[in-house]
């Protein structure tokens, strides 16, 4: 009886080992590199006049419905939601004011893609964080994990999916600009590679230090984002959180990496305790 | 064995008014869950800035935590070889099994696209804590089903499958412990991805450890609480010696939790918040004092461990402590829009809990969960004939 148990343990252990171990090599492929040459956008709030051409272009490109009141008259959305991927807001106090463009930041190491249990969100090497709705199970972990509160949900739908800016991945793949930056009449929103955008941003900070709040938002926040910001007021006032440089996937990955060790460690410890607490019985039976 | 099928029959335990109320509440909850599948999530009060509600905090986070008794008791009996607790194994495994079924049912209500839940099997993301939880819960529910199956095989008198399950009991128990260690702690890992959302009293890199330890303590407490209530309902003798033995483990687990937590709060500098944020401080102290420290002291006192009401109350505190902890970390002190659950959400949560009690009750009524003297003899015969 006991010999059978022990043999079974060995067989079970070996079987499980082969199941779990191959998946360890997946890490290298899952998080892309620094993405410095991937697509990025720079929004300079000092150049923005708040015309919302980007907002309209976004709705036209993505085919999302406009907000209407009960008399079928057009209204402005007040926040990002299931029908609104980008939005211009205005901050104003007694001394100064600043427009701000809200949209997905397209993090270099996105929390949403890292926490999604079914890989429905994906950071493409070209820059955009895209959403594959056909995979989604609707757990909404991406919504809680996003430090910028970007993914929104279709709460009224029977089969709801996540809605967020896709960085016009299709247009960019065809060599075009994202719809919003193409529509910007003042050059407040420009697109290019991340290296170019950072160069321009730092050049502007160096040329006109008095005009800007001295920080390029998105350069280092949660490991860096593809959406970069320049502004004349502090980013907290514009509703952008103060974030550490550590990418969120780097917080959870050490725990996930430890999973096989915890599993086999615990199984091993329990087996050892089992043989120790049953040592006398084995002698009797033997 | 000719009397085999005779063991699966309706046992005439009394049906009280409480049980009828539970049947009604369960039926209402289940109908609202069905209604939710027809109309979608619009009947909830969740919103874009509050995407997780009580179905996550109560049914998933608390429910799975309270179900930890199944693996803890299995470890104590089969691995640590404390045979005295053997009589409690079956009801505990059953409670665990039902809890996991309930968690799966609630998940089906909570997911926006429940019809896609099987995508967990084909679309992998080993970076996601939720992916790991999904897999562990699927595997562990299977383990619980197998651990529970002997009672059905026994009742049917099927010797071959019984013998097979008995021969793999120990590997199965060890597999279950390893899976539980993983997913109980990973529920904490899940929240480590939210550093900017959760209040620092609850957010900590050690959350996986806290979730694991509190789950063991509350799982054991739940076992005592459940045996007390089944003893009352099904007119069995409440085995005070067994309950006393189980609860003697709780002070060690909770003590370890409190020590790590206090050191964590001091070392991380979070203690400054004790004078800054009055409301979180209040809840934090209630949780640590009422849900951990006081019951730990109560359970280390032998007089309380030999008193029925003392044990039941202390167990109640430990369970309440876990539920409060899960609510504080996933709802109350998690940044987001104001949220109070809708009537539908509350009805589904309470209704599915009642459904669990109904399933437990049905198992006790139809299966030989509490062997009567004749059945005990049969069981012995069966064991001898191995």
Description:
The complex is a heterodimer of chains A (286) and B (386). Chain A is α+β, with helices and mostly antiparallel strands and 286 residues long. Chain A has eleven helices and eleven strands. The relative contact order of chain A is 0.18. Helix content of chain A is 36%, strand content 14%. In chain A, strand 8 (152-153) and strand 9 (162-163) form a beta hairpin. Residues 8-33 of chain A have low confidence and may be disordered. A three-stranded mixed sheet of chain A has the order 10-1-11. A two-stranded antiparallel sheet of chain A has the order 2-3. A two-stranded antiparallel sheet of chain A has the order 4-5. Chain B has 386 residues and is an all-alpha fold. Helix content of chain B is 73%, strand content 0%. Chain B has helices at 17-39, 54-66, 69-79, 86-110, 119-122, 129-156, 159-167, 169-192, 207-233, 240-247, 250-267, 273-276, 278-300, 302-305, 308-332, 343-366, 373-384. In chain B, helix 2 runs antiparallel to helix 15 (308-332), helix 6 (129-156) packs antiparallel against helix 8 (169-192) and helix 9 packs antiparallel against helix 11 (250-267). Chain B is globular. In chain B, 47% of the residues are buried. Classes of the chains: A alpha+beta (286), B mainly alpha (386).
Quick rundown:
Chain A is of the alpha+beta class and 286 residues long.
Give the uncertain stretches of chain B in residue-range form.
Answer: none
Overall residue-averaged pLDDT value of chain B: 90
Give me the number of helical elements of chain B.
17
* Largest beta sheet: strand ordering of chain A: 10-1-11
Q: What's the order of the H and E elements of chain A?
A: HHEHEEEEHEEHEEHHEHEHHH
What's the quaternary structure here?
A: heterodimer
Q: Please give the radius of gyration of chain A in angstroms.
A: 25 Å
Number of strands of chain A: 11
Helix content of chain B: over 70%
For the biggest sheet of chain A, the summary is:
3 strands, mixed
Query: What is the general shape of chain B?
Result: globular
Q: Helix count of chain A?
A: 11
């Amino acid at each position: 009886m006991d010999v059978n148990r022990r043999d079974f343990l060995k067989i079970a252990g070996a079987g499980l080992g082969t199941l779990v171990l191959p998946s360890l090599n997946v890490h290298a492929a899952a998080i892309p590199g620094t993405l410095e040459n991937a697509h990025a956008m720079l929004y300079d709030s000092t150049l923005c006049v708040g015309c919302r051409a980007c907002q309209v272009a976004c709705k036209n490109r993505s085919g999302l419905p406009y907000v209407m009141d009960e008399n079928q008259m057009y209204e402005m959305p007040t926040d990002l939601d299931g029908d609104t991927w980008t939005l211009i807001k205005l901050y104003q106090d007694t001394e100064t004011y600043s427009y701000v463009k809200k949209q997905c930041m397209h993090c270099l190491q996105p929390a949403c893609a890292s926490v999604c249990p079914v890989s429905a969100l994906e950071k493409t090497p070209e820059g955009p964080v895209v959403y594959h709705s056909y995979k989604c199970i609707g757990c909404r972990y991406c919504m809680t994990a996003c430090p910028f509160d970007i993914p929104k949900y279709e709460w009224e739908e029977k089969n709801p999916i996540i809605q967020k800016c896709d960085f016009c991945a299709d247009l960019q793949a065809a060599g075009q600009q994202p719809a919003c930056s193409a529509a910007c009449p003042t050059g407040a929103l420009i697109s290019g590679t991340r290296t170019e955008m950072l160069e321009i941003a730092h050049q502007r900070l160096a040329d006109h230090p008095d005009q800007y709040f001295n920080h390029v938002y998105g350069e280092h926040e949660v490991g860096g984002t593809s959406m970069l910001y320049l502004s004349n007021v502090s980013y907290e006032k514009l509703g952008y959180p103060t974030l550490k440089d550590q990418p969120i996937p780097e917080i959870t990955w050490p725990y996930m990496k430890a999973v096989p060790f915890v599993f086999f460690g615990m199984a091993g410890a329990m087996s050892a305790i089992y043989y120790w607490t049953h040592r006398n019985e084995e002698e009797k039976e033997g | 064995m000719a009397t085999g099928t005779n063991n699966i029959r309706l046992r005439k335990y009394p049906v009280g008014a409480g049980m009828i109320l539970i049947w009604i509440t369960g039926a209402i909850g289940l109908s609202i869950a069905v209604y939710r599948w027809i109309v979608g999530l619009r009947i909830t009060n969740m919103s874009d800035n509050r995407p997780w509600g009580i179905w996550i905090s109560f049914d998933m986070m608390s429910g799975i935590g309270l179900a930890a008794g199944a693996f803890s008791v299995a470890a104590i009996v089969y691995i640590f070889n404390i045979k005295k607790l053997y009589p409690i194994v079956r009801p505990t495994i059953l409670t665990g099994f039902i809890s996991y079924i309930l968690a799966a049912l609630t998940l089906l209500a909570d997911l926006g696209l429940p019809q896609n839940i099987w995508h967990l099997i084909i679309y992998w993301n080993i970076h996601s804590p939720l992916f790991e939880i999904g897999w562990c819960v699927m595997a562990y529910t299977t383990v619980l089903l197998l651990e529970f199956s002997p009672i059905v095989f026994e009742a049917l008198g099927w010797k071959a499958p019984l013998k097979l399950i008995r021969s793999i009991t120990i590997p199965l128990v060890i597999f279950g412990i390893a899976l539980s260690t993983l997913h109980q702690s990973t529920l904490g890992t899940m929240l480590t991805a939210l550093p900017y959302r959760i209040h620092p009293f609850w957010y900590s890199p050690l959350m996986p450890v806290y979730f694991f330890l509190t789950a063991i303590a509350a799982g054991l407490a739940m076992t005592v609480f459940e045996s007390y209530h089944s003893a009352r309902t099904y007119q069995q003798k409440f085995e005070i010696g067994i309950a006393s033995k189980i609860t003697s483990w709780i002070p060690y687990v909770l003590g370890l939790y409190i020590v790590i937590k206090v050191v964590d709060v001091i070392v991380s500098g979070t203690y400054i918040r004790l004078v800054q944020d009055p409301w979180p401080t209040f809840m934090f102290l209630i949780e640590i004092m009422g849900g951990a420290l006081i019951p730990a002291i109560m359970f280390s006192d032998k007089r309380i461990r030999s008193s029925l009401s003392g044990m039941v109350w202390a167990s109640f505190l430990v369970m309440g402590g876990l539920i409060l902890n899960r609510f504080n970390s996933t709802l109350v002190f998690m940044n987001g829009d104001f949220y109070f659950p809708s009537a539908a959400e509350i009805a589904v949560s309470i209704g599915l809990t009642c459904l669990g009690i109904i399933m437990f009750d049905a198992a006790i009524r139809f299966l030989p969960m509490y062997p009567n003297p004749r059945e005990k003899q049969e069981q012995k015969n069966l064991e001898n004939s191995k």
